[in-house]
Specification:
CATH superfamily: Alanine racemase
Bound molecules: pyridoxal-5'-phosphate
CATH class: Alpha Beta
CATH topology: TIM Barrel
Oligomer: single chain
Strand content: 15-25%
Strand order of the largest sheet: 7-6-5-4-3-2-1-8
Length: about 230
Amino acid sequence: MGEVKENIAAVKKMIADACNEAGRNQDDVTLVAVSKTKPNEMIMEAYDAGVRDFGENYVQELVEKMNTLPKDIRWHMIGHLQRNKVKYIVGKVALIHAVDSVKLACEIDKEAAKLGIVQDILLEVNMGREETKFGIFEEDALSVVAEISKLSNVRIRGLMTSAPYVVDPEENREIFHKIMRLAVDIKNENVDNVYMEVMSMGMSQDFVAAVKEGSTMVRVGSLIFGKRNYTK
Ligand SMILES: *Cc1c(COP(=O)(O)O)cnc(C)c1O
């Protein structure tokens, strides 16, 4: 094999080039390797290449991997999260990316309070207003942030979005630009407990465009681990 290692080097190079072009520091961009449906052996190849941030979408799969793989991995729950599954991951994952309602945040807060911890989360924004996607709309963001900020066991670290599938990734730059502006608007409200330091945006198809617009966390799966097979 060894392919994973080469793919990671290539992705890192693309991040570095995009940072150069945008006048950004590449250390400000975290690569989250999205390992959903992929076996532990492949995750370990990425681990051996130095990756410590891994993203998963399904709670059961995440918990199984977490229990068997090295303890210094930072796990990211990037998929849509159901409220009844919150208890299995709170306190165990570094970051929950796709918080898309006050209700979900309340559930995370409740479970985090039981453990006496503060759980870091991101607010998922549906910038492309796609019907098939989760996430709050831009115009609701300030009020949702205000509600969630009252919860003392969750901390909003920033925003997350998944842009539409496009043929030319440059088309998504406008969406990434808009969510960066939204983050500035939120920051300007100076709400306690709310930070806008993490911008989780950009996947295999469009992470270069996202980095050019200011992404601090890219979620790259297929470009590292190859296409996913969901039929297995
Ligand atoms: C699967 C997934 C990714 C990775 O997608 P690729 O196109 O394989 O890079 C990123 N973000 C989310 C939310 C995902 O579900």
